[in-house]
Amino acid sequence: MKKHFSTLQLYRLLLLALVFPLLTSCNDDDEETTPSADVTVQFRNLVAGQNITLGQTYTSPSGDTYTVEDFKYYISNVKLLNANGDVVYTEPESYHLINETAGNTAFTLAGVPAGSYSKIAFSMGVDEARNHSTDQEGDLDPSSDMVWDWDTGYKFLLLEGTYTGDADAGGLIFHIGQDENYTTFTMPLESPLTIRTKSGYTLQVSTELNALFQQPNLIDFDEMNAAMGGENARKIVENYTAGFFSVAELK
């Protein structure tokens, strides 16, 4: 009888040894972190609906002709929102120089949690917390030629080129910056971004360069061909707030 009892005990121990790893495996699965994926944000810069070509001649909304030789701007503080308008993802250290001149027009949002996203929010420019320090790295490195000085801060948008108007011809110089011109945009996606796996995802945001010169302030280059602050800069800010960015789409 004693021998039979010991055998039964051994049987139970063996059974427990087989079942225990399965139980702990299930628990490990339950405790795994929420899946996440990287999302590429691509900015497509357009003139009259076509990809911008540096050096090519374009016609402005007021009828002037112009070329673009250098074009870049800062995108910062990128967030993704759900259908209720709640911020679900905030990119840390979120400062990106969209540099059409150098061909750098995309960046990656790392570790976006699984879920459904209906809007993207971002700002044009550099926020006040970083705008007045030039001792910085990455896209905020002063070598990018996007800094005036530590007091004035960064150029949020830089456009340089040439123009020919009805009465004159010359250079175009638009350098937009200063804290009061830091602008935030929230845009709905054409369709929800649904993240289920770790596969790559891409959001495309389009810009229309002619919108900088169109509404609500129609810009005649004979009258205004430069802006580095003041009323002229504010006119450009009002224009890009009204229609520079278009709805983001999934690719």
TrEMBL record:
The keyword Signal applies. The keyword Signal applies. Residues 37-218 form the Copper-binding protein MbnP-like domain. This is Copper-binding protein MbnP-like domain-containing protein. Residues 1-28 form the signal peptide. Keywords: Signal. It comes from Pontibacter actiniarum. Coiled coil: none annotated.
